[in-house]
Structures are given as structure tokens and as C-alpha cells.
Write a structure and sequence with these properties.
Blueprint lengths: L1 H23 L1
Length: about 25
């Protein structure tokens, strides 16, 4: 339900942050 969607969103944001950090570094 909503919890899984929220967890998926958090994981997606975290992966995006890691990717952005790798690209910017």
C-alpha cells in the first residue's frame, strides 16, 4: 500500500542523490 510506495520513493531519492554525487564529484 502507501507504505511500500513511500519506501520506494525514499529508495529512488537516495539512489538519485548517490548518482548525482558521483556525477558532480
Amino acid at each position: 500500500p502507501a507504505t511500500w510506495r513511500l519506501l520506494d520513493l525514499m529508495v529512488a531519492v537516495m539512489m538519485f542523490a548517490v548518482a548525482a554525487q558521483l556525477i558532480l564529484s
